[in-house]
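Most newcomers find our protein records easier to grasp once they have seen one. A learned vocabulary of local backbone shapes supplies the integers on the structure line. Here is such a record, shown just as it appears in the course material:
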Amino acid sequence: MRIIFAGTPVFAAMALEALIKSNYQIVAVLTQPDRPAGRGMKTVASAVKQLALQNRLTVLQPASLKVPEIQQQLRMFDADVMVVAAYGLILPESVLVTPRWGCLNIHASLLPRWRGAAPIQRAILAGDPETGITIMQMNAGLDTGDILLQQGIPIDADDTTQSLHDKLGCLGAQSIVEALELLQRGGLVPVPQVETQACYAVKISKSEAAIDWQHSAIQIARKVRAFNPSPGASTGFRDMQLKIWRAQAETGEPGKNGEIVAVDREAITVACGNGLLRIRELQKPGSKRLGVADFLAGNPVRPGECFVTTDQSASQHG
């Protein structure tokens, strides 16, 4: 089976590695152009490109797939299928129909729930009990194609976007290998998505990361988990903006929204619109992430002080 692989971040690289280990013939790898990243803004190759070069695979990095020359180049590979995972470019109709069996997408949700750019974060924010991987036959719509294979996993109470990303990356890698094996045997049965069950995972914006202490402790704890590792749930405190990386919701007597009601070496406990939030890991601007005991050693915090909702877009620390 001749495969063109299209993907960019670590999530996609996990799938590419599984295909390589399964001895599939990867005739070309498409990935986003190298871009500046990190504090030094040095130009960095994508995780997919790095893995492809390590395995001496042909790498293409077009800025668009709408260019006729690129489309002709893809046809020349005579691919049986294109596997797409978090690629980041729109595939025009002429590309979708180029491979013999079309293009299969690895999507990190149980479609039709959470179509779009941020399915992992949206599932956590919504309090979904489970998520999973969908292998989908791509069409011209946004994650609207027929479902070919699905596998679900529970969302644990302490799952962050990072931990769930890692689990889904592994599951996606396993799922695409299974799907391609079924495809070769004619065992994939396309199932149309139920449009009435569809919802969209809109891209995460930094402005969403500001904590509103009028919300319930459960909602805020979900936000902390959903925005870990990026962009980090944020709150104002004294004259600075803090990021909260780990916290748990508890029941308790209501107090003034954002008021610190207890402090110990385990947690800073804050009153919310409903319930209490026990903060266990946080970060000052320009500093590193610290557990509460280490944070308090250099930053004494007193009951009665308050966290405040601020404009997250004003925060620049990471």
Residues 2-201 form a domain with the Rossmann fold fold (CATH 3.40.50.170).
